Each structure stands twice: as C-alpha cells, then as structure tokens.
C-alpha cells in the first residue's frame, strides 16, 4: 500500500523521516510517496485533503482536526524552542501600525504572536527563510523567525523582542507545541497505528545512527552550515518526538483550547490523537 506523505525540508523532519523513506527500517509492507514543501504550503495543501500523512503546524491542525488525527510520534514540541519575534537594532516599540512579517497565517508562530501581541494588525505572510532579510531591508518593522532563523538572527544584525514560545510557556506552564505529523481520519484505525509505529522506529533509528542521515539533511536544508543543522535537530527532535505522552498531549490540548476559546463545541483531548 502506498501512503501519500508530505513533510518539510527542515533538518528535524528530514532527520526523522530519512530511515522510513529510504528502507532502513521495517515499514510493515507500506511504501511512501514523498513530497517536500515549506510548512505553510503543507498546511494549505493538507486543508485540501491532498495527503494521507502530513507535517502540520499545530495551529493548522486545530483548524482541520475533523480531517486529520495527530500521531504520537513526530512532533516538534518542547521547551526553549519557540518562534522569535525580532526587529532591527535600535528600532522603536511595536504599535498597531507596525509592519510584521509572519511565516504563514496557519503556522503556530502566527498563533503565538496573536496571543502575545493581539494589537498587531498589519501582518504579511512571507516565506520563513526570507523574513530576516525583509526586516533588515526595512520592508518590515519586525518579523517572526522559525526553524534555522533562530540560530542566525544575531549575526544578521537583528535583536530579539520576545521569545514567543517562552511567553506561552510562562502563561500556560506547558512545553510549546509547534508542529506534528497528522494522518487522515479516512484511514483505517489499525493503519493509523501502523504508521505511528513506523515513524517511531524511523526516529529511533535516526537517533541511534545520527550520521547516516547527514547527506539527506544537508541536501534539503535551507542553511548549509552543518553545525546549525545539528543544533536544529538537537533542539526539535527530543523525547516528545518519540512519544507525546501525557505531558505532550496536555500541552497540545492547552493550546488547542486557547486557539478555539470562542468556539462553543470542542473536541475531547484524546480524540485529537491516534
């Protein structure tokens, strides 16, 4: 059976998926037809139902959890790894008129920005890898950085306004749910669980043999610096990537409730997960 799978070219995703998409672990008879795209592009494509299995921002997942269910494995969730709001050095305070670049309206970064700065209205969607330059060129007054950008912004002459993940952690007491791997609710429940097992095996293999995926990670990464790629993987691939567990699920559900605070009917926590 062929599973239509999509994930981002970011180091944590390519590291996690390398073994299962290159026949290095037992895939229990499944084959994977792979697409790579920026996470916001994946959010948009998934909303059209294009994939059986897809990397999603948790913000996007909350909008389409009637179509998808989240795997226990594969999430980017943790402490001190959230998106960063940055500006040029010596720039003024943010106002409702400030021009802010975001990496997509369905990203968790956009949700966390809204939670921390609800007064910001002038937001523009920009490819995540172009946000820092957009701020430096004065096209934007500030920008929200995700992925590799958090490791390079200081060298590019930018200053930190606020760590948006840390802000959410201080409000909620929970780790920050950034993105996860979801599968279609149209798939058989046993098949969903099989896919979850395979992904966990793939991540375990990657952690046990970290050098094997080096070439694949580098081939897809936005930044060629191998040290930054390594830091990226160490930050975003952790115990929650292997298994969300109760702590991870509670963290996801806490953000789900915040994102949907104005809705009357909400899903129970455990219905969000395989």
Which properties best describe this structure?
single chain; 274 residues; alpha/beta; D-Maltodextrin-Binding Protein, domain 2; 2 domains; 6-stranded mixed β-sheet; 5-stranded mixed β-sheet; 12 helices; 11 strands; 19% strand
Walk me through this protein's architecture.
By secondary structure, the protein is of the alpha/beta class. The protein has two domains: 2-78 and 176-272, Periplasmic binding protein-like II (D-Maltodextrin-Binding Protein, domain 2), CATH 3.40.190; 84-172, Periplasmic binding protein-like II (D-Maltodextrin-Binding Protein, domain 2, 3-Layer(aba) Sandwich). It has twelve helices and eleven strands. α1 (11-21) crosses α8 (189-208), α1 (11-21) packs across α9 (214-220) and α4 (108-116) packs across α7 (164-172). It is globular and about 55 Å long.
Briefly summarize what is shown.
The protein is α/β, with parallel strands linked by helices and 274 residues long. 41% of the residues lie in helices and 19% in strands.
Break the fold down into its secondary structure elements and pairings:
Elements: E1 2-7, H1 11-21, E2 31-36, H2 39-47, E3 53-57, H3 58-63, E4 68-70, E5 76-78, E6 84-88, E7 100-102, H4 108-116, E8 123-125, H5 131-136, E9 142-145, H6 149-152, E10 158-163, H7 164-172, E11 176-184, H8 189-208, H9 214-220, H10 226-236, H11 239-242, H12 245-259
Parallel strand pairs: 1-2, 1-3, 7-8, 7-9
Antiparallel strand pairs: 3-11, 4-11, 5-11, 6-9, 6-10
Helix pairs in contact: 1-8, 1-9, 4-7
